[in-house]
Amino acid sequence: MVKRIAAALGIALVVLIAIIVFNTIIFTAEEDEAIALVTHKVNVEQAAQRLGEAVRFETDSTKRRSADFPRFIAWLEETYPTVHTTMERQLISNQTPLFRWAGMDASLKPVLLAAHYDVVPVPKASLPDWVHPPYAGMVDENFVWGRGTLDDKGAVIALMEAAEAMIAEGFQPKRDVWFSFGHDEEVGGIFGAGAVARKMRTDGVQFAWILDEGSFVLDDIIPGLERPIASINVAEKGTISIELVAKGAGGHSSMPPKQTAVGTLARAVDRLQNNPVPGGLDGVTADFFDRLGREFGLPERALFANTWLFGPLLENQLAKANTTNAMLRTTTAPTMLEGSPKVNVLPVEARAGVNFRLHPRDSADSLLTHVEEAIDDGEITIIKPENYSEASTVSDADASGYLAIEKAIRQTFGNVATVPGLTIAATDARHYGRVADNAYRINPFQIEDHDLARFHGTNERLSKDNLRLGISFYRTLLEAQ
After folding, report:
1. What is the DSSP string of 150-164?
2. Secondary structure of residue 421 in the 3-state scheme
3. Which end of the chain is more exposed for a tag (fewer CB within 10 A), N or C?
């Protein structure tokens, strides 16, 4: 009897190993269609100087009444006269330029290419650490330095350079192409992209697809990959922030109760952090890791090829890194705390602010239910926000827009893998996507690990080579429309 059980187990093990091996062997990246690189003649020195000039307008998103906003718009008109005389232009909310490039076939659905020109503030404490002043727009042999070069004036300039050159050469797109350059993306985009979307709905304009920022061509950022990855993001997370409030009797700190309001609040925050929103390898996350997993070496491929067996192990490992954990689930980030005004005074009230980034599988309602269950404390009041953003819908990675962007990426950057990804922060695409069949998110620049800290950080810069690639990408993409 024992021998029979042992034999049966042995056979089962052999079968299991055979299944794992077979799945791993066939789990390979699809052979890329042979696509030749497309190169365009680009005056990159001129483009770099113009990006430097654009940086010098201090379009700080927290100072939207600044004169630099209308000055930047006037500078665009002066710098790109052919675009302005050929395309229809209007100003939405007096600050977001919206262009329509008339196509040859009015029966085709239009497309929209978007970027934004507002930037995040520069903390005064960081100024000594900048190689060049953040608004100097310094151009050296290899880079354009300054706030907004990566996020997102580089894309604005690349688009305008491409269009100006193409119009001068006599090009006209087959379909209507719209450009929209938001002025308030960094603070929610309500009056820029949001107003554009509302106008398009009123005017009955529905885009076949839109393209905005959201990811990049990632080189040497994900360990274990042999070639760069272009993450063409098909969705973005929503955002919701709540307040947790604990009450106390107050008084002098020399006679404290067993637990103060701060202690009650800390317990609630701890419970939230130790009970993350459930994640999983499903939906857009599954698509991302399915395509990405095929690019790894044999050991990693074996895991991704057999998620039916190794799924829990994979999720556990992916959850250990902040970047991949954010792809798996709605994230929880306690960010603000407030208690007593003095260290020797017991607080009558303690507050915590917690920000969540909603995965497309979750909703604000399901998140709030999770918060209540995780905290499970009658001494904590949960204040729900009036305003929040649900996660976007998930766009089609097999639709013509995605395929056009994917092809243009490969024609520009060469041997890169493309995957449909998830933008973990918020962009203007969530507004534009409301009047589009599909919304995609990628900037046509290649970044490395050391570039990540430059976003919203110190020493932001864009290489001239990236600027050249970005202009070439937009030209290639526009030529196909």
Report:
1. IIIIHHHHHHHHHHH
2. strand
3. N
Domain 234-383 belongs in CATH node 3.40.50.300: no
d(CA 384, CA 70) in angstroms, rounded, equals: 37
Confidence of residue 8 (pLDDT cuts 50, 70, 90): low
For 462, left (φ over 0), alpha (ψ -120 to 50), or beta?
Answer: beta
CATH no., domain 44-221+425-479 = 3.40.630.10
Query: Which residues fall within 8 angstroms of residue 467, CB to CB, at 6 or more apart?
Result: 44, 47, 48, 51, 144, 154, 157, 158, 445
* pLDDT, tens digit (0-9, with 9 covering 90-100), for 389-433: 999 999 999 999 999 999 999 999 999 999 999 999 999 999 999
Closest among 291, 286, 307 to 225, alpha carbons compared: 291
Angle at 430 (CA atoms; ends 429, 434), nearest 5 degrees: 105
Distance (Å, rounded) from C-alpha 153 to C-alpha 159? Answer: 10
Respond yes or no: is residue 465 known to be catalytic.
Answer: no
Counts for the chain of helices (H) and strands (E), in that order: 15, 18
Annotated catalytic, 270?
no
| Spatial distance between the Cα atoms of 189 and 389, rounded to a whole number of angstroms | 12
Distance of CA 97 to the CA centre of its chain: 22
60, 152, 161, 185: the catalytic one is 185
CB atoms within 10 A of CB 187: 14
Q: How many Å apart are CA 63 and CA 67, to the nearest integer? A: 9
The DSSP secondary-structure symbol of 226 reads: S
- The structure tokens listed for 16 are 């299991």
Cα–Cα dist 186/222, whole Å: 26
User: Which among 58, 60, 118, 315 is annotated as catalytic?
Assistant: 118
Look at residue 273 and give its three-state secondary structure. Answer: helix
Give the range among 145-149, 206-210, 312-316 with minimum mean pLDDT: 312-316
How do residues 26-58 score in pLDDT, each as one tens digit?
A: 888 877 777 888 889 999 999 999 999 999 999
pLDDT digits (tens, 9 = 90+) for 281-327: 999 999 999 999 898 888 888 889 999 888 899 999 889 988 889 99
Contacts of 218 (CB under 8 A, 6+ apart): 228, 229, 230, 231, 446, 447
More confident residue, 114 or 223: 114
Question: What tokens were used for 420?
Answer: 């449909």
Any idea where the domains of the chain sit in the sequence?
Answer: 44-221+425-479, 234-383
Flag the least confident range among 79-88, 231-240, 307-316. Answer: 307-316
